[in-house]
Amino acid sequence: MRCGCCNKTENKMKSKADELLASPIREMQTLGKVLKEEEIRKNNLYIPLARIIQEKYPEIIIGGSTGLYLNGIKLERHRKARASDLDLIIPYYIKFESDKNMIIREQGCSGRDFDFTMSCNEVNVDVRIDPKQRWHYIEMDDFKWKVGSPESALEAKIRYIMQGNQKHKDDLYEIIGLKTIMPEKEVVDTAWGGS
Q1: Half-sphere exposure (Cβ direction) of 126: Cα atoms closer than 13 Å
Q2: pLDDT of residue 76
Q3: Which residues pair with 146 in a beta bridge?
Q4: Distance between CA 175 and CA 157 in Å, rounded?
Q5: Could you give the residue ranges of the DSSP H alpha helices within 22-180?
Q6: Of 20, 25, 22, whose CA–CA distance to 35 is shortest?
Q7: What is the pLDDT of residue 70?
Q8: Is residue 130 part of a domain?
Q9: Which residues form the domain of 112?
Q10: Rounded to an integer, what distance in angstroms lies between the CA atom of residue 175 and that of residue 195?
C-alpha cells in the first residue's frame, strides 16, 4: 500500500529508466540501468514505506541502513536484497495507527537498542525512543527527510560488530573501503600498559 505521491514519483522514475534503456545510445542505456538499480535499492530499503510513515508522523527520524542510504552511504547488499527491517527513532512514545496506507501490528521488542517492534505493511519496523537523537534534513525525490546522523548508525554498527555480528562488520568494511574481509589475526598480549 502506498500513498499517491510515492506512486507518482516511482512511476516517473520507472518511465525515465525505461526510456533511457530503450535509447539507441549506449551511454543513455547505461544511465537507464543505473537509474533502475537505484529504484531497486530504494525499494529494498523500504524508502516508499519510510516516506508514508514520515508524512503521517513528521517527528519520526529515519535511522539504520535506510538512514545511511539517505545520508549518501549505499551498501552493495541493498542492491540485491531487501533490508531486514526499517529502523525509526522517535523523541517520545507515539501510538502508531493503521490507516489506508499502513497496516500496523505491534510485536514487542527486538533487542536492546529498540523499545518496540511493529509490523508495518508486513515490514519489520524497529522503533527506539530517544529524545536526544541528533538528526538533520535531507532533500531527495521532492521530499524533505528527517534523518539520523550517520555517526549514530555507524556507532551502532560498531557495537554490533563487537558482539560478533558479521553483517555489520561487512557493512563497515565496505563503508571504510576494506572490500575484502580481512582474516582475524591472533591477538598477542604484550603485557605492557602504555598506550
Answers
A1: 16
A2: 86
A3: 137
A4: 11
A5: 26-44, 47-56, 64-70, 77-80, 150-162, 166-176
A6: 20
A7: 96
A8: yes
A9: 4-176
A10: 27
> What is the residue-averaged pLDDT of the chain?
82
| 195 assigned to some structural domain | no
User: What's the CA gap between 74 and 76, in Å, rounded?
Assistant: 6
Q: Quick check: is 193 in a domain?
A: no
Report which listed range, 3-7, 116-120, 132-136, is most confident.
132-136
CATH code: domain of residue 105:
3.30.460
Instruction: Return the SS3 of 143.
Output: strand
Residue 61 · residue 146 · CB < 8 Å: yes
Over the stretch 23-52, which tens digit does the pLDDT of each residue have? 788 887 788 788 888 888 899 999 999 999
Q: What is the DSSP letter of 146?
A: E
The reply to whether 183 falls in a domain is no
- In the chain, the number of structural domains is 1
Helix (H), strand (E) at residue 88: strand 86-90
Residues 153 and 130: their CA atoms lie apart, in Å, by: 14
Name all contacts of 167-174 with Cβ < 8 Å and 24+ positions apart: 167/77, 170/77, 171/65, 171/75, 171/77, 174/75, 174/76
How many whole angstroms from its chain centre is CA 58? 17
